[in-house]
Specification:
single chain; 364 residues; alpha/beta; four-stranded mixed beta sheet; three-stranded mixed beta sheet; 32% helix
């Protein structure tokens, strides 16, 4: 009788892609994507299975949980491969929360980088077991799923899961963010009256704020980056979507992501065109669009400026550009009453941002 570990390992080995059969023979491999190491995959599967088993948790809490409060919480998930440059700004954001029982913080820091744990802050003891990540690779999908699974296991009260990076900053106070996600009936400008119904001050229906793009000139190149037919039959091109890797999802959708095995087998395939391969920008919108399109807003709450993009990176703001006018401009949205977060800022923007914290950013 084979052990469970043997069967799991053998099945994973069988699922490893035969890249040369998928990629066109006339195109050379250029900086091929690094496959997910088998030990990492096994660790993740164990974690995901634990989280999936808590689909209807009763009183399961771990050492990271702040309390057993029945109030809905927002889990803030920071994905980083460098220091948390704006930790002081986020510290003030969380300190201004009406209660510590309204949020949890989790950090996935690339272990190959010596990331400083900000002492005396909400981040100090919130680092989760992490694996190495690479830009434009499935490792970023794994890291995000790791954060989601940890937060699901840690606290059943986690109702929303906000994925952020070290370059993200808040555009509003905690009170505003919490009210917008949990209680407001007007925040989402795209919702119907029935979707904004409340009972006892709590929304009856919640949506995930995730960007889902179905029409873009780069979609076909991104889709075919692993080979023309590599994604078939599970993901036909007409169901392939794109969008920001920074989103806010409901617990229901966090579990959809954690439980998925089918699409993951496709999106973890290495690409033969690294310049067209950004799986972290396609896996989540494709999966949730296929699973529950009406349960998603199709837009993100993290403002990004793609004007003057360089090597796939968005525009990066620098200290001279930081002003009250910039904050007000970044808040403007056509889909919601406001954006809640923004990126990308250079680390030295911290000082001018802190100068605006009380008078502008956290003054709603």
């Amino acid at each position: 009788m084979f052990s469970t570990q043997f069967v799991l390992t053998f099945s994973l080995l069988l699922s490893l892609p035969i890249l040369f059969l998928l990629a066109p023979r006339f195109l050379p491999l250029r900086h091929p994507s690094i496959p997910i190491p088998l030990p990492d995959e096994l660790d993740d599967l164990s974690l995901f299975n634990r989280a999936a088993s808590l689909s209807n948790p009763s009183n399961t809490f771990s050492h990271l949980s702040s309390s057993k409060s029945p109030k809905l919480k927002i889990a803030f998930l920071f994905l980083t491969n460098s220091d948390l440059h704006f930790a002081p700004l986020w510290q003030q954001f969380f300190q201004n929360a009406p209660s510590k029982n309204l949020y949890n913080v989790y950090v996935h820091a690339d272990p190959s980088v010596n990331v400083t744990r900000p002492k005396g802050t909400v981040f100090e003891f919130r680092f989760i077991p992490a694996k190495k990540t690479y830009r434009g690779s499935p490792t970023l999908i794994s890291a995000t799923r790791r954060l989601l699974a940890t937060a699901v296991i840690d606290d059943p009260a986690n109702a929303f899961f906000a994925v952020l990076s070290q370059y993200c900053v808040p555009l509003h106070s905690f009170r505003y963010v919490y009210s917008s996600l949990v209680t407001s009936t007007t925040f989402d400008l795209t919702q119907s009256p029935s979707e904004s119904a409340q009972y006892g001050g709590v929304r009856l229906k919640y949506k995930s704020f995730i960007e889902i793009i179905s029409k873009n000139r780069s979609l076909w190149k991104r889709y075919a980056a692993r080979g023309r037919f590599a994604m078939m039959p599970e993901v036909p091109f007409e169901k392939f979507r794109g969008g920001s890797q920074f989103f806010v999802v409901t617990r229901k959708h966090a579990l959809v992501v954690i439980k998925d095995r089918t699409l993951w087998r496709k999106f973890k395939l290495p690409c033969y065109r690294d310049d067209e391969c950004f799986p972290e920008e396609h896996y989540f919108p494709t999966l949730l669009s296929m699973a529950d399109p009406d349960g998603c807003t199709h837009y993100t709450l993290t403002k990004v400026n793609w004007t003057g993009t360089v090597n796939g990176h968005p525009y990066t703001y620098r200290p001279p550009e930081v002003s009250a006018e910039l904050i007000y401009r970044l808040r403007q949205s056509n889909f919601s009453e406001s954006y809640l977060f923004a990126r990308k800022f250079t680390p030295d923007c911290l000082k001018p941002l802190m100068g605006l914290a009380d008078s502008v950013i956290f003054r709603d």
